[in-house]
From TrEMBL:
MF terms (GO), sorted A to Z: 3-keto-5-aminohexanoate cleavage activity
Source lineage: Bacteria, Pseudomonadati, Pseudomonadota, Gammaproteobacteria, Oceanospirillales
InterPro entries in alphabetical order: Aldolase_TIM, BKACE
Protein name (Swiss-Prot/TrEMBL): Uncharacterized protein
Annotated Gene3D superfamilies: Aldolase class I
Amino acid sequence: MLFSNAALVERVAEICERYERPVATWRQAREILRLDMP
C-alpha cells in the first residue's frame, strides 16, 4: 500500500491529537532526529 507524504503527515497529526501530544515543528523534528540544520 502506497501513501503520499501528505497522507502520512495527516495520519501522524491525527495520532498526536488522539494522545494529546503536540506535533513537532520541522526544526524540532530535525533536532529529535539529530539532523543538521540547513
